[in-house]
Design a protein that fits this description.
about 325 residues, D-Maltodextrin-Binding Protein, domain 2
Length: about 325
């Protein structure tokens, strides 16, 4: 009887012990949020890939992905502490750090760089029946310019400026998400839409299948002027064959998508996440076609803000400057 009682006590103690260990492990698990963008864009699937890498390779870190209004909204989430990590445009990251109005009422001093990701092309998707051969032809047209305060909106302002246009020159200004812009374009409610996103984003692919359309070029002296005035731009192209009806390369300009992190995040954690991303780059590549453009050797190219110490440690180990 005593022996059975002793065995019972031992089993109970083991149950309590392992239960406590489980609670401790749960308590020690670090929860990190990453602000991404529209589900139909590129940010969301890449953020999902980063979350999967953490789940598989960093069992003590759980990264949750949040859909958001993209670049400007993400910088503000870093400022408020409501996001630990975020994907956003490199130009918007710089504006955030400097507190450039009207996007930011005050600087975001705690935004830090983690890694550059891939080029984000400025793409003007237009219905062919709207007869828009040049950016100048947007005058008097109904145009989606991106959500209010978004990176797309800011790029739209700058591109129009290079061609001597303002919002007031458009017949109608629609501040729409990428998915909404595609729907409006298909329905004929707008003539053209601006996007700052990776080439091949479904927000452009889907309406291009449904309606005869084109990508409006950004080139010549206007592209040169943009790059000169705003150094975060580079000249690029939308390759032929990506979208239905686009059978030639179309010149444009691009900014850069980067991964940022709040300064307060633990340096060792940032180091481990950065390391895990590049040691499991195939997961990033498999998440979206743009993931194939994420390269270790290009990780610091176009990074306009200071690096987080954790990321800096990793890149120093790899000899990346």
């Amino acid at each position: 009887m005593k022996k059975k009682l002793l065995v019972g006590v031992m089993i109970l103690c083991m149950v309590v012990f392992f239960s406590a260990m489980g609670d401790l492990a749960h308590a020690q698990k670090k929860y990190v949020s990453i602000a991404s963008g529209w589900v139909v864009g590129v940010y969301f699937p890449l953020a999902g890939a980063i979350s999967r890498i953490a789940h598989e390779k960093l069992p003590d870190i759980k990264i949750t992905v949040e859909s958001s209004g993209a670049s400007v909204a993400n910088a503000k989430l870093i400022a408020s502490g409501d996001a630990d990590m975020a994907i956003l445009q490199n130009d918007i990251a710089l504006y955030a750090l400097q507190g450039i109005k009207p996007m930011f009422d005050k600087p975001v001093p705690n935004i830090r760089g983690m890694t550059a990701l891939y080029p984000e092309h400025c793409q003007i998707h237009a219905r062919k029946d709207a007869k828009i051969a040049s950016v100048r032809d947007l005058k008097g047209k109904r145009v989606a310019v991106g959500p209010l305060g978004s990176g797309t909106e800011q790029n739209t302002i700058q591109i129009l400026e290079a061609y001597g246009l303002k919002f007031e020159d458009l017949a109608k200004v629609e501040r729409l998400t990428a998915a909404e812009s595609g729907d409006y374009l298909k329905d004929g409610r707008i003539d053209a839409a601006f996007y700052t996103t990776g080439v091949g984003a479904s927000a452009i692919v889907d309406p291009a299948i449904a309606v005869d359309s084109m990508i409006v070029p950004i080139d010549g002296a206007q592209a040169d002027a943009l790059v000169k005035k705003y150094p975060f731009y580079s000249k690029d192209k939308v390759p032929a064959g990506i979208y239905k009806g686009v059978d030639k390369d179309v010149p444009t300009v691009a900014v850069l998508a980067i991964l940022v992190v709040k300064a307060e995040l633990d340096a060792d954690m940032v180091y481990r996440i950065t390391k895990a991303i590049f040691e499991n780059i195939r997961t990033i590549e498999g998440a979206h076609a743009k993931g194939k453009e994420v390269k270790l050797e290009k990780a610091l190219i176009g990074m306009p803000i200071p690096l987080h110490p954790g990321a800096e440690k990793f890149f120093k180990e790899k000899g990346i400057k």
